[in-house]
Amino acid sequence: MAVDTLAARLSRAIRTVRGEKEACVALDRPARQQDPEHRTEADADAAFAAAKGWLAFSDEAAHLALLLDRAP
After folding, report:
1. What is the dihedral of CA 34, 29, 22, 59, to 10 degrees?
2. What are the extents of the domains in the chain?
3. pLDDT exceeding 70 applies to what percent of the chain?
4. Backbone φ/ψ region at 53: left (φ over 0), alpha (ψ -120 to 50), beta
5. Backbone angles phi, psi at 55, to 5 degrees
6. Taking a C-beta distance cutoff of 8 angstroms, is the pair 33, 21 a contact?
7. Given this model, what pLDDT does residue 38 score?
8. What DSSP state is assigned to residue 36?
9. Does the CA dihedral 71-65-16-30 come out positive or negative?
10. Alpha-carbon span 62 to 64, nearest angstrom
11. How many of the other CB atoms lie within 10 Å of CB of 42?
12. Who is most buried in 16, 21, 36, 45, counting CB within 10 A?
């Protein structure tokens, strides 16, 4: 699967797991929906989504992500 497709899927997963008024989401929450062996893939998807302007990270370690309005 193409990395842009996977990044879009990650964006949708973040929308699914975040609370109604929750701005930032810990990236391990949507990653738990996937196979734990694919955590490296999820990290790469998050990096791609950030490069596309779909995600912003609220901490230096990139553990918390803010899903931006332009995300698919």
Report:
1. -120
2. 3-67
3. 78
4. left
5. -130, 150
6. no
7. 62
8. G
9. positive
10. 6
11. 23
12. 45
